[in-house]
Amino acid sequence: MERNKKEYAVRIIKILEEDYGHVKCALNFSSPFELLTAAILSAQCTDERVNKVTENLFKRYKSVEDYANADILELENYIKSAGFFRNKGKNIIKSAQMVINKYNGDVPQTMEELLELSGVARKTANVVLVSAFGKSEGIAVDTHVIRIANLLELTEYDDPVKIEKDLMKIVPKKYWINFSFMIQTLGRRICKARNPVHVFCSLNKICPLLQK
DNA sequence: AACTCGGGGCA
DNA sequence: TGCCCAGAGTT
């Protein structure tokens, strides 16, 4: 079963690479801490909306110190439209303080350390590792990945931790980074949670949903 | 395992 | 105007 699923996964990846092989992180940022901030904001929020928020946020706050010393109410005002802004504002400031106090101002580069930061769990940590540092200790699993991996019958159930473990067994390691980017892009643009655009889907020849 | 934490887009 | 989208933390 594992071998067949691996071959199936690679087939999917090869097809997706034709359309999405060049795709990178959808979040805008110009430093690791900006990416960390954007990634924290992206919880339960689309990347497009995060980019809208960070456009002004990144003009107002330039350094990790600026975030660590930020007035919570003022910062919250900048990030309101990303939703859950009271949690996220607190988390951004607390994470900035920890980056300064514990890591000398540099965003840490391991999963274990990133998970200690406020507002950072596995999905966000994976995003930071991949896009800020080009490292991957796992596969970023968001709702797009859950939906599409289940749809393609690569995985089952909806526990992101379990899905990530299963995908790490099925997807060859050299594809981990691109797999997330490509699936997320497909999920945002084509294979949406609602009203998927089957005609434009790269996978419409093999999608189990369309074979019945 | 179940709950809380908002706001924006679209019908 | 009400439904749906998108993760982390706490109990």
Automatic annotation (TrEMBL):
E.C. no: 4.2.99.18
Residues in coiled coil: none
Catalytic activity: 2'-deoxyribonucleotide-(2'-deoxyribose 5'-phosphate)-2'-deoxyribonucleotide-DNA = a 3'-end 2'-deoxyribonucleotide-(2,3-dehydro-2,3-deoxyribose 5'-phosphate)-DNA + a 5'-end 5'-phospho-2'-deoxyribonucleoside-DNA + H(+)
The HhH-GPD domain, residue ranges: 41-189
GO biological process: base-excision repair, AP site formation
Cofactor (UniProt): [4Fe-4S] cluster
CDD domains on file: ENDO3c (cd00056)
The keyword Iron belongs to this UniProt entry's keyword annotation: yes
Key words, A-Z: 4Fe-4S, DNA damage, DNA repair, DNA-binding, Endonuclease, Glycosidase, Hydrolase, Iron, Iron-sulfur, Lyase, Metal-binding, Nuclease
Matches recorded under InterPro entries: DNA_glycosylase, Endonuclease-III-like_CS2, HhH-GPD_domain, HhH_base_excis_C, HhH_motif, Nth
CC cofactor note: Binds 1 [4Fe-4S] cluster.
PROSITE patterns in the record: ENDONUCLEASE_III_2
Parts of the chain that traverse the membrane: none
SMART domains from the UniProt entry: ENDO3c
GO molecular function: 4 iron, 4 sulfur cluster binding; class I DNA-(apurinic or apyrimidinic site) endonuclease activity; DNA binding; DNA N-glycosylase activity; metal ion binding
Protein role: DNA repair enzyme that has both DNA N-glycosylase activity and AP-lyase activity. The DNA N-glycosylase activity releases various damaged pyrimidines from DNA by cleaving the N-glycosidic bond, leaving an AP (apurinic/apyrimidinic) site. The AP-lyase activity cleaves the phosphodiester bond 3' to the AP site by a beta-elimination, leaving a 3'-terminal unsaturated sugar and a product with a terminal 5'-phosphate.
Family from the record: Belongs to the Nth/MutY family.
Name of the protein described by the UniProt record: Endonuclease III
Organism: Endomicrobium trichonymphae
